[in-house]
Design brief:
161 residues; mainly alpha; Arp2/3 complex 21 kDa subunit ARPC3; globular
């Protein structure tokens, strides 16, 4: 029998690895680092509504993804913090799974625009970046996240969280 601690670590590690791979895929497709950032990996934030192991998994996955992508230190720190805050908010909404995408959408929409403007010196206003980052998050967390919730709900009785 696998201990709870071992299962937790395994789930967190798998989620982190999936986050890195999905971010890399989005990067290869040119979707993950523009003003409208569509990271397929951000859909995984809804998993925090199912298991607390998703919280460190998402944070570590985002942290590693930002390092591998060559992000500046402020992006690595604050981008990862935005994902962590989103995952914590999602975990708090675990009884309302279809609201799970809202915390990461909000956290990224409020934090990432400042990273784009001040860490990267991207031309544009904070308001503009809030619109573009928010749009990407609605696609990544909202649309793709809801699709993931729907799939997980169908399989939940087969998954040993």
């Amino acid at each position: 029998m696998i201990s709870k601690k071992t299962r937790f670590l395994a789930h967190a590690s798998i989620i982190a690895a999936l986050y890195v791979v999905l971010t890399y895929l989005a990067t290869l497709l040119g979707l993950s680092s523009n003003a409208v950032q569509i990271r397929f990996s951000e859909a995984l934030t809804v998993l925090a509504a199912y298991t607390p192991a998703a919280i460190p998994g998402l944070f570590i996955g985002c942290f590693l993804s930002n390092i591998f992508a060559g992000g500046v230190i402020w992006d690595i720190l604050f981008g990862s913090l935005a994902t962590l805050l989103g995952a914590l908010g999602t975990y708090a909404l675990k009884k309302h799974k279809y609201l799970a995408p809202l915390p990461p959408i909000i956290a990224n929409t409020l934090i990432v625009p400042f990273v784009l403007r001040y860490a990267y010196g991207a031309p544009g206003s904070i308001g503009y970046f809030m619109l573009t980052v928010g749009a990407g998050e609605v696609i990544s967390c909202g649309i793709l996240g809801i699709l993931l919730i729907t799939a997980v709900n169908k399989l939940e009785n087969r998954i040993n969280w």
